[in-house]
Amino acid sequence: MIENIDGFDWDAGNAGKCEKHGVAIADIEDVFSRPLHILADLRHSDVEDRFIAVGKTTDGREVFIGFTFRAGKTGVLIRPITARFMHKREVEKYEKAIAKTEE
After folding, report:
1. 93 to 6, 39, 53, 87, 102: CA distances (angstroms)
2. Neighbouring C-alpha atoms within 13 Å toward the C-beta of 53
3. Is the per-residue pLDDT at 81 higher than 80?
4. Higher pLDDT residue, 61 or 1?
5. Confidence at residue 93, expressed as pLDDT on a 0 to 100 scale
6. How many CA atoms lie within 13 A of 45 on its CB side?
7. Count H helices, E strands: the chain?
8. Mean of the per-residue pLDDT values of the chain
9. How far apart are CA 74 and CA 59, in angstroms?
């Protein structure tokens, strides 16, 4: 799914929303270059397909990223919608869910 991506779609709207939660744009882009788990976000997919990415920053902090894909002039782009650092209980919940999918 992420292999055919040509970049990111940033503007003041999504950049500001992501950064207000303390996650830098550079960290978000870096998370997509590392191993991560992607799940469909069915709850927010009424207008367009949305996804949830759960991954780690270079310093090991777990990040939750809501995103979609957009067509750009150069190809398919990832458009982050929101991003935030995860709480311990959330990390445990997602690790259990991921372990079940890998069985």
Report:
1. 31, 14, 14, 10, 15
2. 26
3. yes
4. 61
5. 81
6. 12
7. 3, 4
8. 87
9. 31
